[in-house]
Amino acid sequence: GGGVILAPSILAADFANLAAAAREAEAAGAGWLHVDAFDGSWTACRNFTVGPPVVAALGRATRLPLDVHLAVAHPGRYIDALIKGGAAGITVHWEIGPETELAVLLGWIRGAGLRAGVALAPDTPLPESLVSLAARGGVDVVLLLAVAPGWGGQAFRPAVLDKVRRLRQAAGPGLHIQVDGGINAVTAAEAVAAGADVLVAGSFLYGHSKGLAAGMDELRAAVA
Ligand code: DX5
Ligand code: ZN
């Protein structure tokens, strides 16, 4: 678990103090900062969070790579602005469109030098075409949600672990497999044992009774 990247999710931070939340994550050794960019347009993800202007502001507040989870019905509307805002990676949902459109979006993101990701909601079975796309290096990150998209603080759904195992087996070590939702010290260990190398954690870290840094230490110890 030494190469595991911890990505605190600012969805669980104080939205009125995001610069402080980003600096706290940076000081505690986060690898990426996870930004849930939702606009409420996708029926499966009805929360409305932050968009490109807040990503740009975070880019000025921290050196952490900004990992944007774009769970919206029309991601193409925001990709240019997120690139200009300094995002390091953009992940779009498999469920929102035909595979041809997804390929265009991934090419656009990669062409700008960012990590291109595909996310899967917990009820979506792992598509064989995504497995083969990952196996041939056509995507940099696959985000496997372990909770329903939209809100933090939900219980981890262990069915995600089979998807992690199958994907790691097919794609090999080069792919970032990110598990998002319900991560704590117990589920972090399960996700990493299954083959995940990026863990997103919101409420466990920003809601930790001893503070984010203590939560980061617990996650690192759990996956060591
Ligand atoms: C859920 C988001 C997650 C969320 C995870 O829609 O994609 O990134 O912040 O929150 P926790 O870690 O509290 O489950
Ligand atoms: Zn997310």
Automatic annotation (TrEMBL):
Superkingdom of source: Eukaryota
Protein name: glycerol kinase
Species the sequence originates in: Chlamydomonas schloesseri
Included range, full protein: 582 to 805 of 817
